[in-house]
Amino acid sequence: MVLASLLALPAAVGSAVVGGVFLVFSTTIMAALDRQPAEHAVAVMRTINRVILAPVFLGVFLGTALIGVAVVVTAPGQPLAWAGAALYVLGTFATTVVVNVPLNEALDRAAGGGAAAWRAYRPRWTVANHVRAVTAIGAAVAFTLLV
After folding, report:
1. For residue 1, what pLDDT is reported?
2. Please, are residues 95 and 140 in contact by the beta-carbon 8 Å criterion?
3. Which chain regions cross the lipid bilayer (predicted)?
4. Separation CA 18–CA 1 (nearest Å)
5. Which residues in 49-70 are b (16+ Cβ under 10 Å) and which e?
């Protein structure tokens, strides 16, 4: 249980950081992009989707998933370990892979990048992002309670 508590701390911090990034997207960035002409919103989002792949964010995003699984392995009988890992791995990580990344790729391929592309992208991406933000923050709470 000591090892699980030690691992739960970086899992909590990583979940909180990722949840915070996604929360800012949901509450600020997407609203700001909606106030721009669609062509500009698409161009900026395409840029964001490339820039976010920086090693620091990817390290925290992927590392938190791995550490979350390690918490469960070291404390398999702890419901909070399972809750934190499930929230992060299924709610945050899997939603990114299954929903947000394919939408990002479709936006990148969209011809013209105008209003039609933005209308097809923004609502679905934003709802999935809300899920990622809430589940990452929920995982942070679960992992924190395990520490």
Report:
1. 73
2. no
3. 6-30, 51-74, 80-101
4. 25
5. beeeeeeeeeebbeebbebbbb
